[in-house]
Structure to design on (139 residues):
C-alpha cells in the first residue's frame, strides 16, 4: 500500500503567516509528487519535468523569502539555516532528469523521501526556531 505523507497539519505552523503559507504550497507540491508515484508507470515526461521545475522554482522562492526575513530580523542562526537551504537546493538541482525519465517508478519514491525528510525535519526544527524568533521580535 502506498504511504501518503504530505498532509498539512496545524502543528507544522511556525507562526509567521508567509512562511506557513509557503510551507503549505511545498506540501501541495509533495502531494503532486505522491500522485505521480501512484501512477508512475503511466506518467509522462512532461509531467515529470513540470514537477521538477515547479519544485526547483518554488523551493528557491521560499528559501529567498526565509533568508530575506532572517536578514531583516538579524536572525542569529542565519548561517546554519542557509547552509541547510543550500544543501537541499543542491540536492534538487542535481536530480538526474534522464534517469528520472527512464525509471520514474524508482526515482520518484527516492525524491519523495528526500523532500519529505527535509521538509518535516527542517520545518520542525530550523523553521520553528526562525518563526519563534520573528514572533518575539515583532511582539
Amino acid at each position: 500500500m502506498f504511504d501518503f505523507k504530505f498532509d498539512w497539519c496545524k502543528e507544522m505552523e511556525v507562526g509567521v503567516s508567509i512562511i506557513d503559507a509557503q510551507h503549505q504550497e511545498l506540501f501541495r507540491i509533495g502531494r503532486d509528487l505522491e500522485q505521480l508515484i501512484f501512477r508512475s508507470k503511466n506518467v509522462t515526461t512532461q509531467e515529470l519535468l513540470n514537477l521538477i521545475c515547479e519544485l526547483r522554482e518554488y523551493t528557491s522562492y521560499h528559501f529567498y523569502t526565509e533568508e530575506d526575513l532572517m536578514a531583516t530580523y538579524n536572525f542569529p542562526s542565519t548561517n546554519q539555516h542557509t547552509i541547510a537551504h543550500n544543501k537541499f537546493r543542491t540536492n534538487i538541482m542535481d536530480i538526474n532528469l534522464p534517469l528520472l525519465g527512464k525509471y520514474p517508478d524508482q526515482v520518484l519514491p527516492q525524491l519523495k523521501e528526500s523532500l519529505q525528510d527535509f521538509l518535516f525535519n527542517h520545518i520542525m526544527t530550523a523553521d520553528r526556531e526562525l518563526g519563534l524568533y520573528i514572533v518575539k521580535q515583532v511582539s
